[in-house]
UniProtKB/TrEMBL annotation:
Superkingdom per UniProt: Bacteria
Designated name of the protein: Uncharacterized protein
Biological source species: Syntrophothermus lipocalidus (strain DSM 12680 / TGB-C1)
Length: 91
């Protein structure tokens, strides 16, 4: 049975060069899996991206850092946040 990926979005065309050895292996894999060479490449790219994200521990929350731009406030807000939130400690 032939596996066909149903794209959720329009695909983007990319053009690249590969080594002859990679081309040979790509053809073999596509033939064994009975899929197009492009599908083997997409599967490999998906796998590589997942591995790299895990390896690099990419945190989606990093994208919010700095979104507020320049704001006024204490320069030591990160280090002294308890003091700013709860006030001075009583003895």
């Amino acid at each position: 049975m032939r596996k066909v990926r149903e794209p959720k979005l329009r695909m983007v065309r990319k053009q690249t060069y590969i080594m002859p050895e990679q081309d040979e292996e790509l053809k073999k894999l596509a033939e064994v899996k009975r899929v197009a060479e492009a599908e083997v490449i997409r599967e490999a790219l998906d796998s590589f991206i997942r591995q790299e994200k895990h390896r690099l521990n990419i945190n989606p929350l990093r994208s919010i850092i700095g979104i507020s731009g320049e704001i006024e406030g204490p320069e030591d807000g990160s280090a002294a946040h308890d003091r700013y939130i709860y006030g001075r400690r009583r003895l």
